[in-house]
Structures are given as structure tokens and as C-alpha cells.
Design brief:
Elements: E1 4-12, E2 18-27, E3 32-36, H1 43-50, E4 58-63, E5 66-67, H2 72-77, E6 79-82, H3 94-104, H4 109-122, H5 138-150, E7 156-160, H6 168-185, E8 188-193, H7 196-202, E9 205-210, E10 213-219, H8 220-226
Parallel strand pairs: 3-8, 3-9, 6-7, 7-8
Antiparallel strand pairs: 1-2, 1-4, 4-5, 9-10
Helix pairs in contact: 3-4, 3-5, 4-5
Bound molecules: adenosine-5'-diphosphate (2 copies).
């Protein structure tokens, strides 16, 4: 079963704007996929629907073979999501934010603790683990969201513009981390970006979205050879 399958996905916002015009996408297990497109193309809308943050107008979504309309809770347990907006309490401590998320997913704190510490360490946040999250920089907050998304050991990680607002050195570190996660754990990764260089450096496959349509779905290498 693919990590993600989308069929005929359509979104018409309340104001009548058609942000997605019936897109299809299949992401096999273990793949590293970029969803590339300019601002306003529909990337966040697509990710939002997959994570049920945005209601779809029509179409079907399966996460790890689970139809999100039939068992959203099970689908959600098999995916980690890093949205664009920071959405954690600024007054909670870093480590607790990660552990509480495991709790919501039904994983006991004791079981999640090692994973939480591992990812906080890997993402350079271990020394901040007992700090309230409002004391973190923007890049640290972004990395905190990645640690939180991974604590329940999802097979699929989806990140919406993960390097937005992250400075160039930290961007490199974050990209290395994701590459290693994909290689060593076999975690399927899908990220959105509007930087071709980022897709090129990191992702084996790229789906280009423009004005609500997927206009290209190919190997990153063959895309570059066309340019
Ligand atoms: P992005 O950074 O993905 O381009 P924007 O900055 O355009 O997103 O939008 C920020 C927020 O405003 C998002 O939650 C988005 O759903 C919402 N939004 C964007 N465009 C509109 C619009 N035309 N009408 C209402 N809400 C919008
Ligand atoms: P991207 O993530 O590729 O920048 P988005 O999915 O955020 O694109 O937005 C796609 C289009 O949908 C944009 O034209 C945006 O203005 C519009 N849009 C986003 N959210 C809303 C909303 N809540 N209401 C109306 N239009 C929206």
C-alpha cells in the first residue's frame, strides 16, 4: 500500500475560489517527495486536507492504505505532520510538548520518553528541553514541531514548508536530518517547498503543482535534465 494516495482531490473555498482542481498523487512507501510550486499554488490546501485541517470539496485520500473518511483516527496515528503555523502552547516546556503529543496518540509517556529525548537531541533542542517554548527562536520552534511529529513513530512524515523562516545553516542541518531519517528509518517523507534547489538537494521525486493542478510528477533528476 502506498504511504499516500490522493484521487480527484478538489477544494472550492467558501468564497468560490477553486484552490485544487481534481488532483491525483500516489506516494510509495519509503519515498522522499517534494510538492513544489509557487505561493498560492495550492500546496498548503492539499496538505491541510490530508491532515483534515481543511475540509475537501470532493475526492479521496488514503494514508498508509487507510481511507481518512472511514477511520481518520487510525490514519492520523500513522502520520506525523508539521504544519506551517506554530500550534503549540508557548507556556509549556519543550519536552512536555513532545510527550503530550505522544499521549494524545495513545502512547504511554514512559514509552515516548526515550524517543522524545532522542529527537530533541538530534534536532539540537536537548539543552532546551525544560524551557518554555516561547523562549525558542523561530528555527527552534520549527524543529520542535518536527520532534513532536515523530514521537509516535509514524511511517509517513508530512512537512509544509519546513525551512520557511529558517536561516541557511540551520536549513542545511534540517535537510540532513530529514535525509537521514528517510535513509535509516525508511520513513516516507513529503514536504512542500517553493524552492527548486531544496527539492533537488533532498527529494527523489517531485510533484509540481500550479494553480491547483499537478503539472508534473517525476524523478527530480529527470526534471533537472529537462531544464
Ligand atoms: P501561504 O504562506 O501558504 O502562502 P498565506 O500567507 O497566503 O499562506 O495565508 C495564510 C492563511 O490565510 C492561511 O491559513 C490561508 O488558508 C489563509 N488564506 C490565504 N488566502 C486566503 C484568502 N484568499 N481568503 C481567506 N483566507 C486565506
Ligand atoms: P500554497 O500553499 O501553494 O501557497 P495555498 O494552498 O495556501 O497555496 O493557497 C492556494 C490558493 O487558495 C491561494 O490562491 C489562496 O489565496 C487560496 N486560499 C487559501 N486559503 C483560502 C481560504 N480560506 N479562502 C479562500 N481562498 C483561500
Amino acid at each position: 500500500t502506498p504511504a499516500l494516495r490522493i484521487e480527484g482531490l478538489r477544494k472550492v473555498y467558501d468564497d468560490g475560489f477553486e484552490a485544487l482542481k481534481g488532483i491525483d498523487l500516489t506516494v510509495p512507501q519509503g519515498e522522499f517527495y517534494a510538492v513544489l510550486g509557487p505561493n498560492g499554488a495550492g500546496k498548503s490546501t492539499m496538505i491541510g486536507i490530508v491532515c483534515s485541517l481543511v475540509r475537501k470539496t470532493a475526492g479521496k485520500v488514503w494514508i498508509n492504505g487507510i481511507d481518512v473518511d472511514i477511520d481518520f483516527a487510525a490514519a492520523k496515528r500513522s502520520v506525523g505532520v508539521v504544519p506551517q503555523e506554530f500550534n503549540f502552547s508557548l507556556f509549556e516546556k519543550v519536552r512536555d510538548i513532545v510527550l503530550n503529543s505522544a499521549g494524545y496518540q495513545g502512547i504511554p509517556r514512559s514509552e515516548a520518553a526515550d524517543r522524545a529525548d532522542y529527537f530533541l537531541d538530534r534536532l539540537g533542542l536537548y539543552s532546551k528541553r525544560n524551557t518554555q517554548s516561547r523562549g525558542l527562536s523561530g528555527g527552534m520552534k520549527r524543529r520542535l514541531m518536527i520532534a513532536r511529529a515523530l514521537v509516535h513513530d509514524p511511517k509517513l512524515l508530512i512537512l509544509d514548508e519546513p525551512t520557511a523562516g529558517v536561516d541557511i545553516q540551520l536549513r542545511r542541518g534540517m535537510m540532513d536530518f530529514l535525509a537521514e531519517l528517510n535513509e535509516t528509518q525508511g520513513t516516507t517523507i513529503i514536504l512542500t517547498t517553493h524552492y527548486l534547489e531544496e527539492a533537488e538537494a533532498l527529494c527523489r521525486k517531485v510533484a509540481i503543482i500550479n494553480r491547483g493542478e499537478i503539472v508534473e510528477d517525476t524523478d527530480t533528476k529527470s526534471l533537472l535534465s529537462q531544464l
